[in-house]
Known about the structure:
- The protein is an all-alpha fold.
- Helix content is 75%, strand content 0%.
- It is globular.
Amino acid sequence: MYNNNAQLKYQATRISTATKEQLLLITYDIGIKACHVAENAMIGKNGAPDYDLANKEILRAQEVIRELMVTLNKERAGEMGEKLSQLYDYMYNLLVDANIKKEPDNVKTVRGMLEELKSTWESALVNLLQEYQKEHPDDKEFASAMSELKGESKPAAPVTSSVLKSTAVTKNVKAGSFTLAG
């Protein structure tokens, strides 16, 4: 019980201190994990299929996709936003079909799409951070946050995907520089 409470506190703190970009990545992680658990439950990796667990996790993945759809700013994202909305709709329908027909391949397909989208957003954020770093080499706050993140006392090395794990870096960058999440 104690371990579960500690995990819940950690997750609550992680979410409450996250930037909107980090929240997007966390949302993808939740959907990916739900799909993975649902797949395993449907194929019975731990014995006989557990369709109740699969249903619960598919519904969780559907909630994630609904959240991604609701938070998508199609006006600002333009044509790309419309295409992404259509993709989310397709993924949602695949999950509905998977749940009705007990089809783990549909869940696997959605998981793969979520993993690809997450990877794309991570790359975009890394690129934006690198661009910011190049354009603002004298930004002491940013350099300090990068150094702190990497446990260094000297100026920070170039931005990598590990930077995404830190709230400090994205919170210390000038407000309004990054608007990936919508």
